[in-house]
Amino acid sequence: MKHTRLVPSVFTVLHDPVTGRAAAGHRAVRAALVGAQLVSLMISGRLAVEGDRVVLVGRRGPRHDDPVGDVVVGAVAADGAERDVRGWVEMLGGTVHDLASRELVEEGVLRWEAPRRLRSAARWPAADPVRAARARLEIEQMVADPTSFDLPGAVALACTLAAGAEGVIGTGSGFLDELVAELPAGPAAVVAALAEVPVRAMPGGGRFAGSRLVVESAVMQRRAEDPAARPGRAGLRARHDAGAALVAADRPHDAVPVLEEAVAEAVQDLGAIDPDTLVAEGNLAVAYLAAGRPGAGIPLLVDTLDDRERTLGADHPLALTARDVLAAVHRTADRPAEALAHYLLVVAHRTRVLGPAHPDTLTSRLGAGLSHADDGDTRAALVVLGSALRDALETWGAGHPSTVALRGALAECLDAAGRPVEARSEYDRAARDAADGLGPAHPDTEALREASTLR
Predict the structure, then answer these.
(1) C-alpha–C-alpha distance, residues 442 and 93, integer Å
(2) Where is this region: Disordered (predicted)?
(3) Scanning 59, 80, 308, 387, which has its CA 20 to 30 A from the CA of 128?
(4) Do 45 and 117 belong together in one domain?
(5) Chain segment 355-395, per-residue pLDDT in tens
(6) The model scores a pTM over 0.85
(7) Which structural domain range is residue 128 located in?
(8) H-type helices in 145-232, by residue range?
(9) CA-closest candidate to residue 207, choices 275, 159, 276, 259
(10) Is residue 287 located within the same domain as residue 429?
(11) Backbone dihedral region of 44: left (phi > 0), alpha (psi from -120 to 50 degrees) or beta?
């Protein structure tokens, strides 16, 4: 691996070639890129580390083969060796990131996707999958045969691990320490500085206000992987369950501080990607939404979905639940097209994993049908709801809550389609089935009975 390609190599390794999502928080990615650039300049004899300071040792003039490096050298020369590695990370992180991403886009390796309404960060999926995957493949080959490591490859992997992205390359915990022990003094000092960046919240309240608590340290990640370093889960789960119970009891304002505390402790003691942490974050997002705080709830829900899919897989029940909730949020916010896009993904996954008549699948099919109706396509809504209703009847019977909900939604869509006689018939049937299955005093029974009498 060429040392002059260290920064673009680390950039491509830290971004998923299909989705373009970063494998670590934005601070961690920028720290890894600055670290890679500093080491690249050390290998080429332009910079060095003296004590804990980065100093200029080579010529200051520009080199046409390393434009990003020229920017860093110019900054060090102007600064007069007043900053340590972490100081340069803070100062140059955004600049190095932007220059490296622009270079990769201009070379046709990656493409840039702009932020979307509920996704504040841009993404860089592969434009040329072969070139985008080259650095990752080279590193994987070196990991498989450690005797083949060269210095740039070792540094690229070390920076990736220091960013907390251990899942990108399957090395296992402790590999970073082994790399640092083998690196020359200057590069080792840079990587060690990156790995020791403390866990800290973002400005304005951390994960809860800014939607992300950036876990930048591979040291903390290894601590999270060490069972001996974790407290018992029972206490955390009890606090989480207490908060979730408050949400269920329609007391979201009381639930928020309880769930915030549970999430903070889970991130610290179990790790940011532990399933218990992800569950707690999801319920905190729901509590924020129920408490009328979409500015906090929606970004956290989006980030939680990203974390669940990246760490557990898109088919995992926790990931599907998060996407289903996000779809419901879009629908209640009168964004039916966005809601439908999420619902269709969940329906496809749940149908394959759980089957078409599983209650969770039926709930998502119900949401998809209603989103079609909200989008003005009542014909598609009737097809989706009718099919789901038949599956529910066959599997669960007429009085099951899923069946009752689907029949009520079908009646609503028939009414919207200008078919009042059929709508009245379905409302009557839904009300009778609800009385039999849920009880005559159940709120759904009363609502369906009222809807029937109004027709």
Answers:
(1) 58
(2) 425-455
(3) 308
(4) yes
(5) 999 988 999 999 999 999 988 888 999 999 999 999 999 99
(6) no
(7) 3-195
(8) 151-162, 175-182, 185-195, 207-210, 218-225
(9) 259
(10) no
(11) alpha
